[in-house]
Every structure is written in structure tokens, then in C-alpha cells.
Amino acid sequence: MNDLARRAASLLTVGFAGKTPDAETTRLLELGVGGVVLFARNVEAPAQVAELTRDLKRRASAPLVVSVDQEGGSVARLRAGFTRLPVFRALGDTGDAALARELGRVVGSELSAVGIDWNFAPVLDVDTNPANPVIGARSLARDPERVAELGTSFALGLLDAGVAPCGKHFPGHGDTRQDSHHELPRLPHTLERLERVELVPFARAVTSGIPALMTAHIVFEALDPERPASMSAAVVRGLLRERMAFSGLVVTDDLEMKAIADHFAIEDVALGALAAGVDVLLVCHHAELARRAIDAIVRGVRSGALSETLLNAAAERVATFAARFARPPLAELDLTKLDGERHRAVVARVLRAAGEPA
After folding, report:
1. Could you give the CA distance from residue 232 to residue 225 in angstroms, rounded to a whole number?
2. Which residues of 112-150 are buried (b: 16+ CB within 10 A; e: fewer)?
């Protein structure tokens, strides 16, 4: 295996079916993929999750970042044996930044206890469209400033626990009428509108030092009428990197979602996203697609279709992120804090402050 293939592989975060990695996933780990994302399909109980993360990290040939979506409410992959988290809107309804940070610490400490390094949260989308089929109560609020304040506080709580947060879905999924899992949404908003509403929470997160942001599979017509944000240099490099001065890790949403998969081949997506300034490609289901993306990156560099300078910059950001957050396999197992009295008490405070039954 050559160094170019290893650098390309480091930019992939992959998912798999079942409770243990299959042969194809193991080969990707040996090749040097930078991360694995877990879903409910991978999870039985806390001890099993801890053993799974330990196994994945032992199989990996490079530091491995294990990630999950643990937002709360319906989007919580870890349930049995873990503290039951309120829907994110309940946290927004409290208006309490200190409590948001405390809840972030709770979530982070439970993820850390089972060997998970990265949480794809908080949602920083502003819920401006009641007809939105995919965000809704996953958003903290309809007010951009409240989303900014509480979302950033929750992210800092995760960081307090040593877990990387990831704000999503840049530059904003709150006003769509389509679900990007199934189709490619388009938004006609002007840049002035985006700066006044959608971008407010992301700007606050950037200034607070959030280490990672996830892109949305949405066409923002005022910025790039041709390509979704995940593949748009105008969005990632022009807006996020240059205008907003974000120097952290940029990860795509799942590239197997229909908003992308129905319109672009995985090879074109891989090259397009990296050329736009993205660092990590998220391929959540099929190892074959992850391998095709890696091969496309290698071919792209060799042919000149993709700048090796861009590849190296992304690989360096991934390595820096992994050095900070990818912990070694768990040496000892301590699950005593999971779903413990103190953690449940924090959730009860959130529910009471939100006016909901605890």
C-alpha cells in the first residue's frame, strides 16, 4: 500500500452493518480510514459498544476517530443503558446556556466512557420553516441568537468531556421543505438573509473554537446555483474558510443520501468535495463506495484532476483532529456514570425548565 492511498483513506469516515466489523470494513481499517460512524444497527448495550470501539481501534492501522449522532430525542443512536436525552428543542426552550453546557458534559462523558470520540451534534439549524420535514424539533429554536448561544454552549460541554462536537448542517438546513435524505433541496435566500438568520449560529460556533462543522446537501442558489454545499467551493472555501475564517475540520453529511447519490457518482462527489475544501467524506453504509472514493482520490491526484496540495491540507487537518480527539482503545471499562442519578437529574432540570414533564 502506498502513501498516497493511505492519505486518501484517512479522509474517509465509514459505517457498517451489524455488531462487529465485516471483512470489507476491516480492510478499510487496515488501509487507514480516519474514522468509523456508529448507528443504532451497531448497538446493543453499553458494554458491547465499549468492546466494539476497542475492537475497531485495535484493528485500525492509524489513529481512529469513532463518531455517532447523539443529539437527543429521535436522533440518539445510544439508548438502552444510556441516559435518555430530551429532544433538542426542549433544551432550546430553557434559554439556559449554563444548563446547555452541563447537558453537553453529560452526553460527552457517556460517549467517552464507551470509547466514542466525536459527536455529530449540536444541530445549529434555525427552525424557520414549520413545514420542514427533517429538522423541526431537532433545532434548538426559531431564533438565530438562541440557537447560537445554546448550541455553542452544548458544544463546549462536549469539549469539557474530551469529546469533539460537530455543528451541522452548514450553511443551514432549517428552512427547507425537502428532506435531503430523499431529494436535493434548493434555497433561494440571498447572502444578506443567510447572514441575518442561518449563518448566525455557525458564526458563533466558529468564534467559540468549535473543531468541526458538517455541510448540508442543499443548493444555496445565491452562493452556487449548480452544486450542493458539500461540493461547492463558493460555500466551503469562499464562505466558510475565507469569509468566516474557519480553520477546523469540515465533514460532509452522508454521501449515500439521495440528495447526493441520485445526482452524482461517488467518484465525482469525492473529488468535488475535496476540491471545494472539505476534509472528511462520510460514507455511512457501503464499504464498496468508500473504497471507490479512495481509489478516485488516488487517481485524481495522479492525473492532476485533484491538487495534491489540497489532499495534503485535508489530510493534515484530519491528523491534527485525530491527535486531539482519537483516544487509544479503552484500557479499563467504567460504565458507572451511564444513566446515573446525576445525569438523569440534569435531564430532569432541562425538562422542568422547558415546562415539560420530567
Report:
1. 10
2. bbbbbbbbbbbbbbbbbbeebebbbbbbbbbbbebbbbb
In a domain, residue 39? The reply is: no
H or E segment to which residue 287 belongs: helix 287-303
| Residue type for position 257 | M
pTM listed for this prediction: 0.94
CATH code, 172: 3.20.20.300
Most distant CA pair in the chain: distance in Å? 60
CA atoms within 13 A on the CB side of 9: 24
Q: Which helix (H) or strand (E) element contains residue 13?
A: strand 12-14
Amino acid at 160: D
One-letter amino acid of 233:
A
Residues involved in catalysis: 181, 253
DSSP lists the bridge partners of residue 12 as 281
- CA 125 vs CA 7, 31, 170, 199: distances in Å: 32, 35, 8, 9
| Dist. CA 335–CA 229, nearest whole Å | 39
How much is the mean pLDDT over the chain? Answer: 92
pLDDT tens for 313-336 read 999 999 999 999 999 999 989 999
Domain range holding 148? 66-353
255 within domain boundaries: yes
Residue 298 near residue 76, CB atoms below 8 Å: no
Residue 33, C-alpha cell as written in the block: 480510514
- Quick check: helix, strand or coil at residue 343? helix
- Kindly report, residue by residue over 146-199, the tens digit of the pLDDT: 999 999 999 999 999 999 999 999 988 766 555 545 456 777 788 888 899 999
Extract the runs of DSSP E, i.e. beta strands, from 157-309. Answer: 164-165, 167-170, 186-187, 212-215, 219-220, 249-252, 281-283
Could you tell me which residues come within 8 angstroms of residue 86 by beta carbon, excluding any fewer than 6 positions away? 72, 73, 347, 350, 351, 354, 356
3-state SS, residue 118: strand
Residue with cell string 495534503: 312
Number of domains in the chain: 1
Residue 71 has what pLDDT? Answer: 94
User: How many whole angstroms separate alpha carbon 60 and alpha carbon 132?
Assistant: 39
- Copy the grid coordinates of residue 107: 452526553
Q: So what's the pLDDT on residue 180?
A: 47
